[in-house]
Structure formats: C-alpha cells, structure tokens
C-alpha cells in the first residue's frame, strides 16, 4: 500500500494506524540519537544533564503510563530525529503517521511528555549558561570589550578622557519595564517546579559522583519530575491582574532585589580593584525597574483603579519586607564595639531619638547589643522599616530619602571610625537597594488609549451625567495622587498615552487630571507612545507642539528639561512589515534625537520591544549599539514581558550578566567611534535603505492586504484557539472576530505565526528587499559595516532557524488558498537564501554555534508537538463544517491543541 505523504491533499482523512513504517531496532535508535546529539556540539556537562533528566523523565513515564506510553513517546521522538538524517528520507512521513495513529487520549499524554522534556532541556541549558558564567568570572579577558560595563568604561575613557567618562558613568541608566502581556505559556506552578529542579541540579553538581548526596539529589529530582508530569500544564482560568502582579513579584523576591547590588559591586570591583569595598564606589545605582502590571489598562477592562492601587501596595509590601530583612541581616553582623569603633554624633543622636520615642524597644535592643552602637542603630532602622510597612505611628518613615539619610549617617560613622570595609561593604549594599527600589520596588506606570481619553473629555465637556468608564478614568488620577503621597513621585508618575496621533492627545491627560482633582492633581510625566508607521513619521512635529503646553513646560523645568518618548515596535511591524518598521523606527529615533538635541532636551527613548522577534525582540545589547547618535546617551529603557522576564531575570547569574551587558552597550553607544560608525553607515547606505523600505512594504502589503487574508490567517494558524488559552488577563483581540488585521493585537499575530512554525512576523519581506537591491557585494559590505542591517539580518537568521518548511506547508494547506501559501513559501525561500549569502557559510547561524545548537537540539522535538497540533487543528477545522462542533470529541481535540501550543512555546522559547 502506498503511504500518503503528509503534504498531500486528503492526508488528514486518509492516514490510519496501518500506514505506519517499520520501526528501527533499539540498537539503531541508540545509534541515530547518539549521532544526532553528537552533531549538535553539546558540551559534555550539559549532555550529561540532559541525559540524566531524560532518563528520569522516562522512568516517570513508565511508572505513570506504563511501558506502552514510554514506547509511544520514543517512537515519535526517534522518527522526528531521523527526519533530519539524510539516510532516512521517509522518516518525516513516518513521524506524521505515528502522530496520527494515536488515540486523542494518547496524543494528549505524548504532548505532555514532550512538553515536560522541553522544560527539562531548557533547565539544563540554563544550568550550562550559569556554569560558563561562573567559569569566566575568574578569568579576566575572556569577554568582549563591549560586553561588560568595566571594559566599556575603559574604552570610553580612552576616547573621551577620564573626567567625561566618569560623568557619563554617573548618568548611566538602565530601566526595564515589566509588562503582563500574555506571552508566558507556563503555569506558575510549572515554573515553581522547574525552579526547585534547578536547585537540585546545583546540589547534584556539588555532590561527589556516585555518593549518597548525588543519589539523594537524583531521588528528589525524580520526585520533582513526577510533580511536573502530574501538574496540569494548562491554567483552568485566566489569571487576574493581581495574579499577574504577584507572579512578577516572584522575580524580585528570588532574584532582582539581592542581585542588582551585586551587579553594582562586581562592576566597582572591576573598575577599582582592591580599592573597591574600602572607599566610596564610583558606580551609581543605575538600574530602575518599572512595571505596567496592574497599570496597563489599554484594552484590558480588568485593570481598574483599585487594581492599580493594589499593585502598588503589593510591590511596596515586598520591597519593605526585603529591606527589613536586609537591615536585620547586616545589623546582626555589625558586632563592632564602641571602644574600637566609636559612633559619630549623628549615630548617637539617631539612637537617642529612638530611645526617647520607644524606650521599651530601645531597652530590648540595648540588651541584645551592649556597647555595639552601629548594630543597634541598624536594627532600629529595621524596626522603622517594619513600622512603615504596617503604617504604624511615629516610627514609620514618610519617604525613602529619610532612610537613605540614616544609612549614610551610619556609613559615615563607620568610615570615620576606621571600619571602612563595613561602611562601603554591607551598608553600601543597603544604600544601593534603597536608591534602586525606594519604598515602591517598581515604578508603576499607567497606560491608556488616547481614544478613551477623548471620549471621557467629550462627556465631561457636555456637562451631562458621565459613564462608568469615564468615572473610572478619573479615579485612576486619584489613585496616582494617593500613591505619590504615600511613596513618593517615583512610585507612580508616568502616564503613557497609546496611539498618540496629535499633541492634543497628551494635553488631554492633564485636562482629565484637573477634572479629577483640580489643583491637587498628581505630578505627571506624560509619555507619548508612537506606534504606527504614520505616527512615527509625525512624532517630531507632535513633540515640538506638546512641549509648548504649560503643563509640559512646568514639569520639564522641574526635571532639568527631561522628556520621555515611547516607540512601539509590534504595531509598526504589523502595520508595514518588519523591514520597513525597523527602518522607520531608526529614522524616527534619529529625527527625535536631533530635535531634542537642538531643543536642549534630555531625551529618554522608551522602546516597546516585545519578547519575540516579530515584536522588536532579540538581543538588546546589539540593538542598542545600532541606534542613531544621541538617541541613547547613556539611558536605555525597554519593555520586558512574559517568558523574557524569567529567561533574563529569573536566575541570579544570568540576570547579572544580562544587566551588565545591556548597561555596557548603553554606556558605549554614545562613544564617538560608535556614533560615527552608526551615522556614517546610515548615510552611506541610505539608498539601500530606501530600496529595501519600498520593496519590503510592497511585498508585505501584497500578502496582508490581499482579499480574504485575515480569515485565511485565522484558518492556517491556531489563532482562534490561542485566544482560548488562559495566558493573561488582557483580551487577545479588540473586536469579537478577526475580520481585518486591525482587529488583531500584535501578540496573537506573532504567537500564531510562531505556532505554525512560520515565524512570518519576524522576516516577511526581507528577501524581496535584499533582492531589490540585488548587489550582493554591496550588501555583504553593508552587513559588515552597517549595525542596523547587521542586527536585522542576525535576528532574522534566528527567526528563520526556528521555522520548518515541512511543517509550515501543512499549516498553509489548511487554508485552501494556494496563492497566499505560495507567496509565503516563496518569500521564505528567498529570505533564507539571501540571509545565508550575507552571513556566509552553508546554513543559518553558522557564526553563532551556541544559538545554532540550542535551536537544532530542540527542532525534532518541536516537530513532534507540531505534528500533534496539526492533527488536532485539522480535526477542529473539519468539525467546524459539521454538526459535531462543540461535541465531546471536539473538546478533546481542542485540549490536545492547547497542550501542544504550550509545548511548542516551551520548545521555541519565544511566543508573542
């Protein structure tokens, strides 16, 4: 009997279990898998971790589902691996047939098994990254000059002199803003289980091979993997905005609160050597962390004024608890007696004021710390922070600056008494934490759509009864004012206006604040968000008008002529395609930066970069170094979301490395050589940019503006089903259905293409753009010398590496539109060809072996989940034309599809 290939019409209805291929022997399986792993260049330590975790997962599968489940998983795994082996050209068809042969219940179990495997591989890879970072930490000179603040500072000093380099270091600012956009497909329970596994893997590394501790760690890992297997991978209901706040707080509790001061210390160590820790540091507290979680109400009706208030309260509680514990911990170790380390008059006064106010507590602390004045005072400060958290009477601090004053008094006292290591060691860490986080932890930002403001003002100007929505808009300003009174201006003061299309959109915010509170309106830094192609082009004119408004002039006068402007990456990419959007964003930054420089304005550009490449994602440090002159100037602010938050900040060593890298690029971006290189290349290749812009936009529009594109897109990807996933509190689309691209938010636009293994949002139009230029020698030169093009090409290479044409063809075949499918596949082939020609070698990512290994290692396993997703998608699409829709069988297929979506997201590691 002829086997029907997966790409042939009618495949979904024709494949039956008897169409499977002969299975290889166990010996052959070991040989094939071993050859595949060896070809990926996996380091021995990581290979051992992957194998150990894989064996433990296999044991769990056998115990939970019997040998039959294990064997089914292995059959599909082997077939998808063999599909990458030229010796077995029919393996892909065999893998597809195996996926079709399972019952829905078995397919469900197999999908869960592969998803668990991805979580374990991701864990092993992260563990290997930490190993490498720890090995490098003791070997100076192994990292590139642009990779650390210390080496970037040395390079800057050579170019501009020590005084100017020092001034720029003092003004350095890195400002990540965490958002609740729903791109993290894992449940919080799954993330917690993985975190526990990570700790056990570290314990296993430290134990003697074959010893009792290693055995104990393996036994506990087996238990944890069993927990991972038995934990439902899908959320039963969408998280509330408050749930999202608490999830993000986990990153602070477990990583960022303690890690950021260590970043400062490591940089100071590198810059000052032995002097670090014994005198005042030269490294400022340059990190500020923002949050939209609980503040971003654009398109999310569940984020209300009360949610914003609660988000601020939760964050404040976390940071105050952290400061209290840190003060107590360092205070307990400061057992320096008064005779050898006499306190200053300021420290004595601090103690006496406390003793007069709280004689009972003072007596208790004096008994615990006799003749240890510095210890007593730090424990007093811990009590005062606790009182602040509880809102208790006269002990509480009214603002963080008061705590900083007290800490600096202790620091000065210790330094004057000769205890400099203590003054500029543990106490300095406390100062850095307060400077970074204040009493608010995250600088909470509010975002709302300009049309909501316009509608509210129209009601208020009419003088009639206002709607519930308008009352809610006004209540937000009252909450912001309350937060500022309780925690200071940094706690909540930025107000981002989505879809800013005119200067009046910004003035409307101040008008609404006055409607809410009159002269008691909160202090606001109104931030325009330019998102569409047209808005980016109009940005300089809009800003020039906005800064003439009295409210803007007054606020800028208070801040030293500072202004913040946000640029939206995802909507501009969805608007004109990724190539034209990147070029438009560069041009907009260039023009805004030039206007700001001529107007003597200190500009901060806020980059709305999503986690995925189709939303402006990719390595931040290389993107920073490709920005126009004066668009960075030592300040970099960007959104961080979903899985990116946990990937970059969830593990201390990786978080330290990431912050150091981004801060280094931020410092180096304004060096004369980098600015000259960037501006010079942009001028030399302006004609290339113009050709690419026109050609890419025309190609993009030929697809997205084709008649029937939106419903076709919803058919060939799991777009509608993604909306059923309980990923986040925010709705996935603006309307009830997707009739046009405008109805769709950028996140599901990217997420759906990623799930279909096409990744179209990250690359479509680039091949045509490069083909339009045509001169390969010129383009290779431009790739080498033009940072913007290099960053674009490298990001596209990564996006293309995660595509799979065999899988993509099957998704595209669901739409019964050969013209659109051919357009996509032709552009894919053309883009891949040009990217390889420009980057060199015979394949993608050949110059980035670690990234290439990560992609190649996962690809066969992602294929397995994609094949399971396809069978479910075909069944659901077929059921949509019958009376079976909504039946029990339909619900089973839907669950299988959603399980596979979660698994593919884990495997590809970027979603929306």
Automatic annotation (TrEMBL):
| PROSITE patterns, A to Z | PEPCASE_1
Decide whether keyword Lyase is in the record.
yes
Q: Name one GO cellular component term.
A: cytosol
Q: Which organism is it from?
A: Microbacterium saperdae
Q: Would the keyword Lyase turn up in this protein's UniProt record? A: yes
Which residues does the annotated region (Disordered) include?
1-23
Q: What is this protein called?
A: Phosphoenolpyruvate carboxylase
List the molecular function annotations (GO) for this entry: magnesium ion binding; phosphoenolpyruvate carboxylase activity
Name of the gene this protein is made from: ppc
């Amino acid at each position: 009997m002829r086997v029907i290939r997966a790409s042939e019409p009618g495949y979904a209805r024709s494949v039956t279990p008897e169409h499977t291929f002969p299975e290889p022997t166990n010996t052959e399986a070991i040989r094939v898998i071993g050859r595949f792993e060896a070809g990926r260049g996996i380091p021995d330590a990581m290979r051992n971790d992957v194998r150990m975790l894989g064996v433990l997962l296999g044991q769990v599968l056998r115990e939970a589902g019997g040998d039959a489940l294990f064997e089914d998983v292995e059959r599909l795994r082997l077939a998808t691996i063999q599909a990458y082996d030229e010796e077995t050209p029919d393996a892909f068809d065999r893998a597809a047939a195996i996926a079709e042969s399972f019952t829905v219940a078995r397919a469900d179990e197999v999908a869960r098994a592969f998803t668990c495997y991805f979580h374990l591989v991701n864990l092993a890879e992260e563990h290997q990254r930490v190993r490498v970072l720890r090995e490098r930490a003791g070997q100076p000179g192994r990292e590139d000059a642009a990779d650390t603040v210390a080496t970037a500072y040395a390079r800057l000093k050579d170019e501009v002199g020590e005084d100017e380099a020092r001034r720029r270091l003092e003004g350095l600012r890195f400002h990540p803003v965490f958002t609740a956009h729903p791109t993290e497909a894992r449940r919080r329970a799954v993330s917690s289980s993985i975190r526990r596994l990570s700790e056990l893997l570290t314990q296993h590394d430290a134990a003697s091979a074959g010893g009792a501790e290693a055995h104990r760690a393996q036994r506990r890992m087996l238990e944890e993997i069993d927990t991972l297997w038995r934990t439902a991978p899908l959320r039963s209901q969408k998280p509330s905005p408050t749930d999202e706040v608490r999830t993000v707080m986990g990153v602070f509790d477990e990583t960022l609160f303690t890690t950021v001061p260590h970043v400062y210390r490591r940089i100071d160590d590198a810059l000052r050597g032995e002097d670090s820790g014994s005198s005042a540091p030269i490294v400022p507290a340059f990190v500020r962390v923002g949050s939209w979680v609980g503040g971003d109400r654009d398109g999310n009706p569940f984020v209300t004024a009360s949610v914003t208030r609660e988000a601020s309260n939760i964050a404040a509680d976390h940071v105050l608890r952290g400061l209290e514990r840190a003060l107590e911990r360092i205070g307990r170790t400061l057992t320096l007696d008064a005779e050898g380390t006499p306190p200053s008059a300021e420290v004595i006064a601090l103690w006496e004021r406390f003793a007069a106010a709280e004689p009972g507590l003072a007596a208790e602390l004096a008994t615990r710390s006799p003749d240890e004045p510095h210890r007593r005072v730090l424990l007093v400060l811990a009590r005062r922070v606790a009182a602040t958290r509880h809102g208790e009477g006269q002990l509480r601090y009214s603002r963080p600056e008061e705590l900083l004053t007290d800490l600096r008094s202790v620091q000065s006292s210790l330094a004057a008494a000769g205890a400099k290591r203590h003054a500029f060691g543990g106490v300095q860490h406390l100062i850095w934490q307060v400077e970074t986080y204040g009493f608010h932890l995250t600088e909470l930002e509010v975002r709302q759509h300009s049309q909501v403001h316009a509608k509210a003002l129209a009601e208020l100007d009419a003088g009639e009864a206002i709607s519930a929505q308008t009352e809610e808009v006004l209540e937000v300003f009252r909450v912001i004012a309350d937060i500022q009174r309780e925690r200071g201006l940094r706690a909540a003061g930025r107000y981002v206006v989505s879809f800013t299309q005119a200067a009046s959109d910004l003035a409307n915010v101040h008008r609404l604040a006055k409607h809410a509170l009159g002269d008691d309106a909160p202090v606001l830094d109104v931030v325009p968000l330019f998102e569409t192609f047209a808005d980016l082009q109009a940005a300089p004119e809009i800003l020039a008008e906005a800064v003439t408004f009295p409210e803007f002039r007054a606020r800028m006068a208070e801040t030293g002529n500072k202004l913040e402007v946000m640029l939206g990456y995802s909507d501009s990419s969805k608007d004109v395609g990724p190539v034209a959007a990147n070029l438009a964003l560069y041009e907009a930054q260039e023009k805004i930066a030039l206007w700001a420089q001529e107007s003597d304005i200190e500009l901060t550009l806020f980059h709305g970069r999503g986690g995925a490449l189709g939303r402006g994602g990719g390595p931040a440090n290389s993107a920073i170094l490709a920005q126009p002159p004066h668009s960075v100037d030592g300040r970099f602010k960007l959104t961080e979301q979903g899985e990116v938050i946990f990937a970059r900040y969830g593990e201390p060593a990786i978080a330290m490395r990431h912050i150091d890298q981004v801060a280094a690029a931020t410092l180096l971006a304004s060096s004369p050589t980098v600015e000259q290189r960037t501006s010079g290349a942009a001028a030399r290749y302006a004609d290339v940019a113009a050709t690419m812009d026109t050609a890419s936009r025309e190609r993009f529009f030929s697809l997205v503006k084709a008649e029937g594109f939106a419903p076709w897109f919803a058919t060939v990807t799991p777009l509608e089903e993604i909306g059923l996933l309980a990923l986040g509190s925010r709705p996935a689309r603006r309307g009830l259905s997707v009739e046009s691209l405008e109805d769709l938010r950028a996140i599901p636009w990217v997420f759906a293409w990623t799930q279909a293994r096409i990744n179209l949002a990250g690359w479509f139009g680039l091949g045509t753009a490069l083909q339009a230029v045509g001169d390969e020698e010129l383009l290779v030169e431009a790739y080498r010398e033009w940072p913007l093009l290099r960053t674009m090409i490298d990001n596209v290479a990564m996006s293309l590496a995660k595509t799979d044409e065999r899988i993509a063809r099957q998704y595209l075949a669901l739409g019964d539109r050969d013209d659109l499918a051919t357009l996509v596949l032709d552009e894919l082939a053309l883009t891949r060809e040009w990217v390889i020609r420009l980057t060199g070698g015979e394949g993608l990512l050949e110059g980035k072996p670690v990234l290439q290994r990560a992609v190649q290692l996962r690809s066969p396993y992602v294929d397995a989940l994609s094949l399971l997703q396809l069978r479910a998608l075909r069944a659901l699409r077929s059921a949509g034309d019958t009376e079976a829709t909504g039946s029990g069988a339909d619900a089973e297929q839907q669950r299988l599809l959603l399980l596979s979506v979660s698994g593919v997201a884990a495997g590809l590691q970027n979603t929306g």
